[in-house]
Amino acid sequence: MRHSRDIDDLRADVAANCRTLIALAEREGLHALVTETVRDGEYQKMLAKKGYAAAGAVTPSFHADHAGLAFDICKNEKDHAYDDPAFFARMGELGKKVGFSWRLAELSRPAAFSVGRGRNVHERDGARAALSAAHAAI
Asked: How far is CA 45 from the centre of its chain?
């Protein structure tokens, strides 16, 4: 069973953007911890069985080894990993600024960032420009 939280397991551009997001958050005093990057099918099935993923979501997609397009985070504070809505709201805003899609199902689960789908060219170009600006600001 494979379950990784190593940022280097992400696709190279996603890993760079993940590090940029974490650095931007740190500048604002937000301490995020990457809790998951890639997983295999066996681990995904276990998540679905335990109710941490949708019952039918038994094959990893964005988190798959061959994809490396998504990562999960929590607040890096003992006993307060998932109980701060303001933290997750701000992380979502920062993530969108560097081109990520953002999903927070509920505060008892990890929050997920992924590379956006379905964006038009102008939105992608805007995300690239925002990412370039974010990289320059670090």
From this structure: 20
The residues near 20 (Cβ < 8 Å, ≥ 6 apart) are 98, 131, 134, 135, 138
Burial of 92 (0-12, 13-18, 19+ CB in 10 A): middle
pLDDT exceeds 90 at position 127: no
Token representation of residue 39: 């997983």
d(CA 33, CA 38): 15
pTM of this prediction? 0.73
- CA neighbor of 133 nearest in space, from 3, 24, 9: 24
Confidence of residue 21 (pLDDT cuts 50, 70, 90): very high
Greater model confidence, 132 or 103: 103
Q: Which residue has the tokens 């956006």?
A: 116
